[in-house]
Amino acid sequence: MNNPEKIQKLITLREQAKAGGGEKRVAAQHEKGKLTARERIHILLDEGSFEEYDMFVQHRSHDFGLEKQTYLSDGVVTGHGTIDGRVIYVYAQDFTIFGGSLSETHAQKICKIMDQAMKVGAPVIGINDSGGARIQEGVKSLAGYAEIFERNILASGVIPQISAIFGPCAGGAVYSPALTDFIVMSENSSYMFVTGPKVTKAVTGEVISTEALGGAQMHSSRSGVSHFMVKDEEAGLMLMRKLISYLPQNNLEDPIQTECSDPIDRLEDDLNEIIPENPNEPYDMLDVILAVVDRQDFLEVHSQYARNIMVGFAKFNGMPVGVVANQPNHMAGVLDIEASRKAARFVRFCDCFNIPIVTFVDVPGFLPGSAQEFGGIIIHGAKLMFAYGEATVPKITITLRKSYGGAHDVMSSKQLRGDLNYAWPSAEIAVMGAKGAVEILEGRALKEIEDDDERAAYIEKKSNEYNEKFANPYEAARYGYIDDVIEPRNTRFRIIRGLQTLATKKEMNPPKKHANIPL
For 208-265, what is the HEC assignment? Predict the structure, then answer.
């Protein structure tokens, strides 16, 4: 084409778009310790792979003098690229343009790449850094949010959706990340809340800081809204690259198995001695997980929230799996409201995307008390039971020590269609612990014993009888509820062989529009 002026115009417009809101605003972004939208995308995606859409889009508003302010890309950078060669769609809000606020056209850009991702079956990563709805556009910006929400809902369980919060995310804007599968927040530079500190004070009189109300620490440890908290944006971007490595492109594909140099028959002799002799003494379940997964590599999800249960991703012989494990090191690994919700959502995610689930069990039961009952532990505990019972992916369960009462049923038991249920010789599978059982079973006899020493001796005797019968896995194995009792050091080998065998598993739930999980 013999028209250098048109070529030069294209080059000039591209440079203008890439400049965002201008040097001063970019500098202000950097002074806050934050990257620009394009810098974030550059780190996230494979080098040179990003293909941008809608670089020349501008807003269409003529109210409140907005027509005098126009910027190319209208506050959000959208497109697709690759992570380790796999196609990923991405959008990154640009705070240097109108504070990243969402307009009609801003929303349309996001919706376009979400629609494209659904067509081709590829994950979507959204990087949020926005002042919220663009007030000058009124209901159009609200409609834009709702358009995004609807696409989040339709994409749920079809393609993986990951949200990064690298700045403000408030009001209605919080619901798009909340509808996605994982949320990453950066320390000291990101926050999420429906209503900010000023409005909170005006309405309720409560005085609270932005960080305390909706910062990364609060959402990662208390509310459970955030799945990962990172020190800075670069760490968050690299974490999302790693997270993608465990996930398939969509719900019709399996996770990608990679080559593994870690021997499948590697023995871990320390596991034979990791369970303390005292049944009430804690140990760290993380040590068990790291000992059996590939290269001691475990990506924990929700690491600071509901720490009495652990969830996360690992690989066994290069095969991605989801891991769920009670943590005896925190609250004895008991199941409570938060732990049940945390694990249930993770199990359902794995089932959506064909990721096998490996469960390590050491659970004394559900947490008793009025606070739990008033909070609805019945409904929340049922969520975890529902998730395991509904899941059709391969499920392997290892019972290490305690597995008591209803919590035994909930933790991927054979009756909830556990495919392979193994137990260590230290497993105790019963309705409850020995002391509680004796007090109920021998209640009448104990009332008749007046001497304290004689009473204590009687309880000890009966407790020993109870333990002899139930403080081992063989009673459950006798009925086929446990498929095999295994030597702890062989755990890695048995899990990998089990996963290999179950790779062709086919199981279908009854036809239905959808289930009615106890929300």
Answer: CCHHHHHEHHHHHHHHCCCCEEECCHHHHHHHHHHHHCCCCCCCCCCCCCCCCCCCCC
CA quadruple 206, 209, 214, 217: dihedral sign? negative
Residue 519 CA to residue 514 CA, distance in Å, equals 14
Q: What's the sign of the alpha-carbon dihedral 329, 330, 335, 338?
A: negative
Q: Is the pLDDT of residue 3 over 90?
A: no
Sign of the Cα torsion 305, 307, 309, 315 reads positive
- In 3-37, which positions are buried (b, 16+ CB within 10 angstroms) versus exposed (e)? eeeeeeeeeeeeeebebbbeeebbeebeeeebbbb
Q: Which residues participate in catalysis according to the annotation?
A: 171-172, 406-407
SS3 167: coil
Q: What is the pTM of this model?
A: 0.95
CB 410 within 8 A of CB 388: yes
Q: Which of 62, 61, 59, 79 is nearest to 71 (CA)?
A: 59
SS3 484: strand
Asked if pLDDT for residue 302 goes beyond 90, the answer is yes
Residue 466 backbone zone (phi > 0: left; psi -120 to 50: alpha; other: beta): alpha
pLDDT at 138 > cutoff 60: yes
* Contact by Cβ (8 Å): 111, 143: no
Cα-Cα end-to-end distance for the chain: 62
